[in-house]
Amino acid sequence: EQLANQIAAGEVVERPASVVKELVENAIDAGAKHIDVSVEEGGLQLIQVKDNGSGIQAEDVETAFERHATSKIRTNRDLFAIRSLGFRGEALPSIAAVSKVEVITSSETTGLGRRFVIEGGQRMVNEDVQSMQGTVFTIRELFYNTPARLKYMKSIQTELGHISDYLYRMALAYPSIGFTLKHNGNSLLQTVGNGDLLQVIAAIYGVHTAKQMVRIEAEHLDYRLEGYVGKPELTRSNRNAMSWFVNGRYVRSFPLNQAVLRAYHTLLPINRYPLLVMQVSMHPTLVDVNVHPSKMEVRFSKEAELVQFVEQAIHDQLLGQPL
Ligand code: ADP
Ligand code: MG
What we know:
Elements: H1 2-12, H2 16-29, E1 34-40, E2 46-51, H3 61-64, H4 91-97, E3 100-106, E4 112-119, E5 122-130, E6 134-140, H5 147-151, H6 156-173, E7 178-183, E8 186-190, H7 197-205, H8 207-211, E9 213-219, E10 223-230, E11 235-236, E12 242-246, E13 249-251, H9 254-264, E14 273-274, E15 276-282, E16 287-289, E17 298-300, H10 303-319
Parallel strand pairs: 1-7, 12-15
Antiparallel strand pairs: 1-2, 2-6, 3-4, 3-6, 4-5, 7-8, 9-10, 10-15, 11-14, 12-13, 16-17
The structure holds adenosine-5'-diphosphate and magnesium ion.
Magnesium ion is lined by residues 22, 25-26, 86, 91.
């Protein structure tokens, strides 16, 4: 069991950002409206994720750290159809196998909750405590008992970069959830969670940049497009400036990026990319997760049609004139 957890940890917990991802996804699954993330030393020293979601019932806390206890068997294809982000029931046991975990949680409004501590897979504490409804996970000394893995960690700046990139994307994907991120006590992100995507863009890219974004909204028989693109003078040197969310999930898509570049065609200097934050909604059967969910790659069953629609919509609404 312990060995299985260590092996699973090798896949689930690659670096501090993987821990943040699993904990934040659990918070979203729990219906949280506010999620506060605080990390120290790139997350290697400490990762804390606090949410105001449903909480975990006291008698279920220990079970939540057992492998596949909550696993709901689903296929890759289903991933885009379901609302819940968790699906394997592997995250908590994997994280607990390679770090020191404390969780304080309450599913009640009575102020009664549970504190559970597990270190290197060993249960240390399971006790009643006072707690507000919601959950606080604190992960200390990630990989403390797997020195070989610890050696693979990059600089604090690199690990922090993975964490902040991930949280920026989640804030963009979920404008109705308020996110905060702190590193060594310094605030790196704060969104209010009022549903306004442009305010999230302002929180991440700055107010000045947000003012230069053009709203895009378009409908098609199969697809819906909603988001913002930067005016041509607001270009970036990196194609990561284009963030796509398909049915709420961050994805990378070469064909969609190309469609945007064609829409801008003569407007962009060479090797410059527009800033873009775009939600694409479609029936789940029209999109397929390619290979592995964490790769963020997708395949669209009617790609040519989608690409044409995206190019047309952005071109029309950017220039205010048809192609
Ligand atoms: P999965 O998300 O795949 O079900 P996890 O190991 O990530 O598996 O989590 C195990 C279970 O613990 C979840 O299914 C959920 O019931 C519970 N849980 C974890 N984090 C939270 C949270 N922040 N709020 C409420 N419940 C949680
Ligand atoms: Mg999970």
